[in-house]
Design goal:
Elements lengths: L1 H29 L2 H9 L6 H11 L15 H4 L2 H5 L17 H36 L4 H15 L2 H15 L14 H32 L2 H8 L4 H12 L1 H9 L2 H6 L2 H6 L5 H10 L3 H29 L7
């Protein structure tokens, strides 16, 4: 197991290097520092002096890869590639265009994102699996057909409808919870109920329909028919045969969602005023803060790779036939 984890971590290194190089190319070759300066300063009143001053202030006045004026290691380290790209591997994210420390912002904002995403993740999976199992119990009946119809309808509704509808109905009309905001204290749960509820309800359509498909595929296997022939109850078949054997695809879809727990949800955090990483990323895109966007892309890449490794490791727990060689 240890050797497998080490091997997968070594495989992740070239992937991270590739993502880093691609991000660097998009931000500094396709979109040059001069272009970034113009977008920040505004095209109408920008001058060459203002561009040069902005580039110097943000460290974009250096050569891209090799500094011919530098002596020794400075020829490589005193470049944009080293200061803005390679330092990401040491988790040195530097400062944003506005001068804020990105590492501090990320470490502060990840907790509100987790406070919303983690209960939404856990409750959503539990609700979707329970609903799917209930529908599978009544497969090929009127309940099953109506359930599929409802799932498709829920999938067809925009995510914004759930957010705005939830805010209007639960917060404004019923006045059960605050309409938006966030406080990191004992009363924080009041601000989390509505975002979590919206996230769970919005995901029932696609989630329950996908789990239903997985369970039905297992329900048509020979071992299920054998269990029925032996007189096993439908509930026993669901929980002792169908559900355990469907864990492999379930884990594949669940564990890869781990990056979203830390990165947050752009829409949820923006509409509910939650100061998480999702709104942090969206604000950076709006203000064209390229330093934050680069850092968030790198963090997202690392989390995604970690999610894939955890997925492979969890296979051995779900299915003993899988062996890590």
């Amino acid at each position: 197991m240890f050797a497998y984890i080490v091997r997968r971590l070594l495989y992740a290194i070239p992937i991270l290097i590739g993502v880093n190089l691609l991000t660097f190319t998009l931000f500094f070759v396709v979109n040059s520092p001069d272009d970034m300066a113009v977008s920040q300063l505004g095209e109408k009143y920008v001058t060459p002096e203002a561009i040069a001053a902005w580039k110097k202030k943000n460290g974009y006045d250096k050569p891209l890869f090799v500094n011919a004026e530098g002596a020794g290691l400075a020829a490589v380290t005193d470049t944009i590639f080293f200061t803005k790209s390679l330092k990401l591997f040491a988790f040195d994210f530097g400062r944003s265009e506005s001068g804020r420390d990105i590492t501090t912002d990320v470490s502060t904002r990840m907790w509100p994102s987790l406070a919303v995403a983690l209960p939404t993740f856990i409750v959503g999976i539990w609700v979707n699996i329970c609903v799917a199992l209930l529908v599978v119990m009544f497969h090929a009946t009127r309940l099953d057909r109506w359930a599929v119809f409802v799932f498709v309808c829920l999938m067809s509704i925009s995510y914004l409808f759930y957010i705005i509808g939830g805010q209007y109905l639960v917060a404004k009309t019923w006045k059960l919870v605050p309409i938006s905001g966030f406080h990191a204290d004992a009363q924080a749960w009041k601000f989390l109920i509505l975002p979590v509820l919206v996230g769970v309800v919005a995901g029932i359509g696609s989630g329950a329909r996908w789990y239903r498909t997985l369970f039905l595929e297992e329900a048509n296997q020979d071992y299920v028919r054998t269990a029925r022939a032996k007189g096993a109850s439908e509930i026993g078949i669901l929980f002792t045969h169908i559900l355990p054997n469907a864990l492999i695809p379930i884990l594949t879809g669940v564990v890869v969602l781990i990056p979203s727990l830390f990165m947050g949800s752009l829409l949820i955090e923006s509409f509910f005023g939650i100061p998480g990483l999702g709104s942090y990323m969206l604000d950076a895109i709006k203000s064209q803060d390229f330093a934050i966007v680069r850092s968030m892309v790198f963090i997202g890449s690392i989390l995604y790779i970690v999610g894939l490794i955890l997925t492979d490791i969890s296979y051995t727990w779900a299915d003993p036939r899988v062996r890590l060689n």
